[in-house]
User: What shape does this take?
Amino acid sequence: MMHMYRRSVPLKLICTLAGLILSLPAAAEQFRVRKTTVFTLPASEAKNVGINEAVAVQLPQDLTFIQGIEIDIKIPQIIASWQDSVAWTLFDAITPAPASDRIDYSGSHIELGTLPTRLSWSCIIPLRKDHTIASSPYAYTLDRVPDISARTLLIRFQQAMKGTPEEFGNAVMQVTIKPVLIDQGRLRLSLAGPHKQLEPYTLFVDGTAYSNSERGIFLDPGTHTVSIVSEAYRNEVRTVHIEQAKNCDVAITLRGIAPTVQIIYPDTAAAYFDDQPVTVKTPFVAEEGEHTVRFVIGNYETVRTVNVVKGRSYTIALSVDASITEEE
Assistant: This one.
């Protein structure tokens, strides 16, 4: 059952002040809190936070897959029963760096409001202008993007009205903070060729040409086809699976277009390529044109010819079969 409440600070006035503050140039504000609770992303464990305390969010240096943060607050009944009783303020450009044993800060306020008369409340803070976070009736999404150059944000909670019960000041909120991930994954393609410097090539993903930059290629989750086309190398095709907010690392060794020949034969035989003994069973480069391959096993000899074409690989294997005939 909801308690009767008194509005010492009307909601309309708080909203008017918030609009006025947001319309003014950002200026550093000095303030003191009773305690600082520090969250380090991507951990999202729940922590207890009281009134007149602060929550500091330390962002990772690599924000490749993070486009925002979501703050979930479980509001105790005693706070939810008193409308506009607790105000929150978001700060960026915080100095000094927040710590659990620090209470005095300076920062620029981005936005403020009051906790609703509900038992839970969510707030989403975008961290990039090109975010794809959709608005939701279940969460309050900020319109502005804070300054995250210092990789730190701070949310301050304050009692905003008088006349509350004595136990009000000891109320504890349960706060959880987690990253809001982008909707794509990243393909990181590593290419190597026969020579130190790569020759020109064209990279296609699902038939669309891309530039293979150090930043990688961001793709929707799912299966994609990667193709590399070049006049200096053989065409290469790979199938990759992209997962949301994860890297997919693919290494491809480009092969030259010079034709190769591999000759496979048993150890009891001898092989000759254009009358030259074959001493390796791995592929070797051959000139274009017609060539002769000769196998010798004891007194048995067989000869084959092969017309070698640029950009192709050839495997020539000696096969010895045994046939069985059964008669009555």
Remarks:
- The CA atoms of residues 152 and 215 lie 24 Å apart.
- Residues 1-25 have pLDDT under 50 and may be disordered.
- The helical segments are 11-23, 77-80.
- The two ends are 101 Å apart (CA to CA).
